[in-house]
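Whiteboard transcription, Tuesday session. T.W. wrote the C-alpha cells on the left side:
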C-alpha cells in the first residue's frame, strides 16, 4: 500500500512538472510553425495553457491529499510533509492567479486591440499592458516550475527521513 501511495504521489508531481517543462517547447513550436499567423498561435497556446492549469490543479489536489494522509499511514513523518504541502499550495495559488486573473486580462486586452495583438501599435497602452501580462505569465509559470522542483526535493528528503 505504501508503494502504491508513493507512486501516485510521484505520478501526480511528474504529470504537473512534466507539463510545465514541456509547455514552453510546445509554445515555441506552435509559434514557429504558425509564424505568419501569430494570432492563431497565441490562441492555441492560450488554450493549451488552460489545459495545463487544469492538469496542475488536479495534480495539486492529489498531491495535497496524499501528503496529508501520508503521516496517518506511516509513510512520512508529519513534520516532513509540511514544507512540500506549503509549496504545493503556493503552486496552486500561482496557477489559479494565472488562470483566473492573468489570462482573462490578456483576453480583454486582445479584444480591445481588435483581436490580433501583434497587429496593434506597440506604443498602444493596451498592447503594452498585454505584453506586461505576458511577461508576468511567463514568470508565474517559471515560479510554479521552481516550486515544483523544490517540492520534489522536500518529498525526496521525506523519503530518507520516513518513519
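and on the right, the sequence the group agreed on:
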Amino acid at each position: 500500500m505504501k508503494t502504491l501511495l508513493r507512486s501516485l504521489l510521484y505520478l501526480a508531481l511528474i504529470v504537473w512538472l512534466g507539463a510545465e517543462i514541456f509547455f514552453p517547447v510546445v509554445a515555441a513550436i506552435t509559434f514557429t510553425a504558425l509564424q505568419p499567423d501569430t494570432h492563431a498561435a497565441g490562441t492555441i497556446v492560450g488554450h493549451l495553457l488552460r489545459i495545463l492549469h487544469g492538469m496542475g490543479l488536479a495534480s495539486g489536489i492529489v498531491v495535497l491529499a496524499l501528503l496529508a494522509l501520508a503521516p496517518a499511514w506511516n509513510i512520512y513523518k508529519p513534520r516532513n510533509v509540511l514544507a512540500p504541502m506549503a509549496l504545493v499550495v503556493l503552486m496552486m495559488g500561482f496557477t489559479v492567479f494565472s488562470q483566473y486573473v492573468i489570462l482573462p486580462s490578456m483576453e480583454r486586452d486582445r479584444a480591445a486591440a481588435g483581436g490580433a495583438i501583434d497587429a496593434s501599435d506597440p506604443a498602444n497602452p493596451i498592447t503594452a499592458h498585454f505584453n506586461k501580462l505576458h511577461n508576468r505569465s511567463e514568470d508565474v509559470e517559471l515560479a510554479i516550475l521552481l516550486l515544483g522542483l523544490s517540492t520534489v526535493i522536500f518529498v525526496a528528503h521525506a523519503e530518507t527521513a520516513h518513519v
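Someone added at the bottom: The CA atoms of residues 71 and 98 lie 32 Å apart.
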